[in-house]
């Protein structure tokens, strides 16, 4: 193997790590922008927000709406869900929710954009995260009740350092 190929490998790994870190930070910035947009919208008279947005902000109304939805914790439009984000970012989001003291079942996680919570939990557990679970019954969409797992964080709750989940 030539030295150039080894240099490429190191550079590729470095850029991959940077991309993962910046993707997580980008989401945090989008949420903060959404919070500010929601404050402005609440202060403006009804029907004035779009005009204000167009005159003052360098994002489209559609993108502003996505930011506000993210700030409200709502799932974004189908193509913008957390499932489409790099895996470590999705894991960070779920881990942050659990570490905040909240618990999740698969239906609640789906509303956050994680359509396969059990896989996300398995990956977090493999990385040493103390995630506990218990069975529960919840109202079903087409039946009386459905049995599913509710997940809890079993360690000391704290915000997730973004570097913990970067794949090496």
Q: Could you please describe the fold and organization of this structure?
A:
- The structure is a single chain.
- With 168 residues, the protein is mainly α.
- It folds into two domains: 1-74, no CATH class; 76-168, Arc Repressor Mutant, subunit A.
- It is 53% helix and 12% strand.
- The protein is built from six helices and three strands.
- It has a three-stranded antiparallel beta sheet with strand order 1-3-2.
- Helix 1 (3-43) crosses helix 3 (61-71) and helix 4 packs across helix 6 (117-126).
- The protein is flat, with a radius of gyration of 19 Å.
- Residues 77-84 and 158-168 have low confidence and may be disordered.
Outline of the structure:
The protein has 168 residues and is mainly alpha-helical. The chain has helices spanning 3-43, 49-56, 61-71, 87-99, 106-111, 117-126, and strands at 104-105, 131-139, 145-153.
Sum up the structure in keywords.
mainly alpha; Arc Repressor Mutant, subunit A; 2 domains; 6 helices; 53% helix; disordered C terminus
What's the end-to-end separation, in Å?
A: 22 Å
Estimated radius of gyration: 19 Å
CATH topology category name of the largest domain: Arc Repressor Mutant, subunit A
Order of helices and strands: HHHHEHHEE
What is the architecture of the largest domain at the second tier of CATH? Orthogonal Bundle
Q: Which geometry do the CA atoms define?
A: flat
Beta-strand segment tally: 3
Average residue-wise pLDDT: 79
Structural class of the secondary structure composition?
mainly alpha
Number of helices: 6
Strand share of the residues?
5-15%
**Major sheet: arrangement of strands:** 1-3-2
- Helical residues, percent: 40-55%
Largest sheet data: 3 strands, antiparallel
Instruction: State the low-pLDDT regions, or none.
Output: 77-84, 158-168
Number of folding domains?
2
Per CATH, the class of the largest domain reads: Mainly Alpha
